TrEMBL record:
PANTHER family: MAX DIMERIZATION, MAD, TRANSCRIPTION FACTOR BHLH71. GO terms for molecular function: DNA-binding transcription factor activity, RNA polymerase II-specific; RNA polymerase II cis-regulatory region sequence-specific DNA binding. This is Transcription factor bHLH96-like. It comes from the Eukaryota. Signal peptide: none annotated. Keywords: DNA-binding, Nucleus, Transcription, Transcription regulation. It holds the Pfam family bHLH-TF_ACT-like_plant. Residues 86-164 form the Plant bHLH transcription factor ACT-like domain. Its main location: nucleus.
Amino acid sequence: MIPGDQASIVGGAIDYVKELEQLLQSLEAKKRTLLLQQQDHQKPTTHNDGYADSPPFAQFFAYPQYVWRHVARDYPFPESRPAVADIEVSLIETHASVRILSSKRPSQLLRIVAGLHTLRLTVLHLNVTAFDSMVLFSISVKVEEGCSLTTVDDIAAAVHHIISLIDAEMASIGQ
């Protein structure tokens, strides 16, 4: 690529947006920690925004395909299914954005990336934000040629299966 050409400019903009997303996730986790610490030191008060009552990272899941922690407040998620993680996938041509909120597990990131690779989904970018016993993964993947996953529901189901296997394995060894 030539500096200043359209591809370089778009690539730089995409990288900048990814950095902003990671910063926002980190700041949201810190804000939540501070709010919870303040609540512990004060008498319980009512928050007008209900922020402390909402699950962490709730604002990052607009239309999740699988729902674990989020309770629909403003609108129901009729197409969402009960799950071991909140999973939301958006797809534009051969590029997918995958968000996963789940309990922290040992070697979870490695297993997720290996599982995606097995499904012929190449990880292009990955953000990890942890909060207490939970972790939020924001993953950009490319759907490779020969991949049988062609819809957001297919990808979400495959990711849910990967997380379910990790969860079941951890439960069987008592973690």
